[in-house]
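Good morning C.,

I know you're traveling, so I'll keep this short. The sequence:
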Amino acid sequence: MTPRAVVAALLTVTILGVVPPTSAEPGTPALFGPSPEELRVFDSIDSGGRYEPGSAVVGGRMVFAADGGAEGTEVWATDGTPGGTRLLRDIHPGPMDSDPIDFVAFAGLVWFSAYTPDTGEEWWVTDGTPEGTRLFADLVPGSSGTAPENPVVLGGRMYFKGQAVGAGFELLVTDGTVAGTRLALDIFAGPESGFPNLITRVGDRLAFSGRVADGVLKPYVTDGTPAGTSRLDQLPLTVDLRPAEFTAVGDRVYFTALDPDAGRELWSSRGLPGDATIVRDIAPGTGGSYPTSLTAFRDRLLFAAYQPGTGAELWSSDGTAGGTQLVRDIEPPGGVGVAELTVAGDELYLVADDGVHGREPWVSDGSAAGTRLLADLDPGAASSGPRPMAAVDGRLLLNATTAAGAEPWISDGTAAGTRQLADLVPGAGGSDPWRIGVLGRTLVFAGLLAPGDRREVLRAVTVPTSTTTVQVRRKYRWKAARKRRIVLPVTVSATVPLSGTVTLTRKGVVVGAGVVVNGQARVRITKRLKKGRHRILVSYGGSIDAQPSSTTVVVKVRRRGR
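The tokens, ready to paste straight into the viewer:
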């Protein structure tokens, strides 16, 4: 049996032999490491969106927007503790909102757009402290403001959509200084706006949707200079493609576009002028397959698309028509369709209804055989309606609804490793959590405070670390080494009793593997060792409850007869 097979077999034993609970009784503490910690209660907490980041990190602090009550929606920061959660500045003084949004880390600061009556919407910056929170510049003097949005960092500069004096809303750029903030591209030349939207980093360039005429949007790619800007399609300027969901995979950029003959389908480009084409007409005719949830996974694009006869299902593409295929027909005819594609670790998660288990989390490796129901969180035909919140250290945090209400759950990609994080608000309603951001190994999230209470509470949960220690004798007999009888007692410690696997590696080759039960494992070295000193890497692979850890030990084999 190969080392990979040994580890797989041990994992199978762990999963089949020890099945931890998958839900909590109302009011019970967390099932995953420590309980989520309550940081502060707010009137409301903003979450942002795909193109409007709801938080950013600087100096070990997460910067976000919330309404603390007296000062309206303003800029706050947290280090993941109650004492380290505080208002940075009341930018629009009093109960009125400055509505901070579009948070991005750049040039050693967090940048965000905020409003005041005197400046309109402009860039503000912070180092995570009240004294370091200030207006960057009133780039468009007066109350109209630059109204910056959709910031993307590329090559030591930050690009964004904003209003430029005399040019309308175009692509702007800054190097972090007022003098270095300027118009990058005037897409629609003159005072009218080109409205660059959906700005997305694609390798060392940016892709975006730009306006070329009234009601006509086209796909572009740029290196940030006029000379390095190209329109990706060759269709007449009168054809409105309305490109959306730019996603990079390798040297390709994928997007969806509304073709007059094919409807909305998947397109692909290598970033060359006019080279964008429909990858495959998945739903022949003008109706379109309406691809959504475009997601880079390994070296392919995974997405949901509609096809007559199967409905909206999981598809995979390598950028060619022949390499664009249905992964698996999960949903019954007339189903809602797969959705919410999210990558965590080496797994792709999605939400689907197979007609038996309701809408539940599924997991996929990109193949039909490797696409399976992760867990039936709300057993039977009922649906838990999971919504992904964040990927933290290879695990997926999600919001799922069961008899305990809508509460946070966590998964490592296995049924045994999928469980409710905590029942934060007992009762059928639940806390209904949503993501604010990730601070290192800590997920900061928001949710409802209590049944019937409209206030929202900020919470944080940290993935625990683990420590691996090994008991090693001063020397081992040569006969025991020759007959593969050396056994190393291993202890893996964390805040909760751990399970999982431990592997022994010597010179890059696995020489042993064992199962961890309640933090303990006895691992036999399966390779014959010669006399002398042997460096063995002892690695705990991690589990739903703790991070991986490792240590190196020296095994000394004494000479024959000594």
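Safe travels,
E.
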